Each structure stands twice: as structure tokens, then as C-alpha cells.
């Protein structure tokens, strides 16, 4: 059984609206352009594909995309928008690509974006996810992970939470346990009728160096790391990273 939270029907139906800032062109377009270039003419597999925020624009660019997603309601929303996009309902640490898509070992690109790998709340599952990604890649194929860098320097003694997003319709903050690397994201969303709703999601944060070790255990080699999809250099002050690991050809 996976440790991931499960997005139910109500959450899935509201996901696109409540996450509108993630669909903004300045956020989405650089990610789609980066991934499309890496995929080239080969097929791509998105882990935790959700409602298709990234996958659908990639398909519209001509990339053959398949997906793996734990939540059936999220897949239902995706299929309402793009019924021809093949998706396996299952755990991204262990599930296999859809039978109607390319077979494992044939993908030129596997990707997991917007911190979704942190939905797996144990280190063992996260290691298994890297291995599952590597199993799906063709020799020379690449795994891309978009992930935040834990902001624990922002936790002075006695502080229990730090904000990660403050917008007109959404405010979110994280609480974290430094001993277990587990945390909870708390979301407060304001709706057009003036009501405010609360939601929470649980995660395990991963350091960039820990990601590199997980990739190494999966037989992958670090190719590049930037702060964002536009290629801003990654530094000790970066709060996010887009990392690319390559499966050797030999």
C-alpha cells in the first residue's frame, strides 16, 4: 500500500480551479518547452500525471505522452479533457505504463513535476520510484524531476510553519518534522462567493543530494541541474531545482 494521499472526487473536480496559478503561461510554458525538447521524437511518461496540466500541452506539441496516476478521480477529470491519453491507475513507485502505450524500456523521457515525488512519504518508496522510472527508460533516456529545496533555514527556533504561496485566491504554508523529513502543506483557498476552504496534503521532502543517490541506486547519472525550467543556475540559495538524470547507453 502506498503512503501517498489520495485525491478524492471533490478534490479532483476542483483541482484545476484551485491550482490556477500552476496553469499560468509564465509557469507552465517553460516546463512544456523544456520537456518537449528532451522528449524529441520519442515517447514520454509522466508520473503523477494528475489532470494533465503538463501532459496535455505536450500532446498538443506532438509528444506521445502516457501517464501513471494514483487517483482514479483525477484520471476521470483528465479523460474528460483528453480521452485518448493512455493512463495507468496505480502507484508511481511500482505501476507499469499503460498497455496501449509504449512498453517499459522504450520511453525517451520520464518526468515527475511540481514536487509530486514528495507525495511518496517514505524513503523506500521514493527509491522505488526512481527505479521504476529507470525501468521505463530506453538507454540514453532521461528522468526529469521538478522539486523544491527544503526551506528549513526559514524555520527559526520556535517557529512551526513557513509560507510557500501567497496569492489572491490561495495561501499555503508548510509544517515539517526535521527528524523524519515529513511535512504537511496547508492550503486556504478563497472562492468567488467569498467562502474559504481548507485542505491539506502530506509529503516527505528530499534533498538534491539525496535525489542524486536515489538516481545512482537506479543506475542513472546526473546530467544537469538548474534552479528552474528556464535554466537559471542552481546555487546554494536556490529554493527549487529541475534535475535531469540519464540512463547510460552501455
UniProtKB/TrEMBL annotation:
One GO molecular-function entry: methyltransferase activity
Residues of the Methyltransferase domain: 45-141
Claim: Transferase is one of the keywords in the record: yes
Any coiled-coil regions, as ranges: none
Keyword set, alphabetical order: Methyltransferase, Transferase
A GO biological-process term: methylation
Record's signal peptide: none
Keyword RNA-binding: no
CDD domains: AdoMet_MTases
Any Pfam family the entry gives: Methyltransf_25
Transmembrane segments: none
Protein name, as recorded: Class I SAM-dependent DNA methyltransferase
Lineage, uppermost ranks: Bacteria, Bacillati, Actinomycetota, Actinomycetes, Propionibacteriales
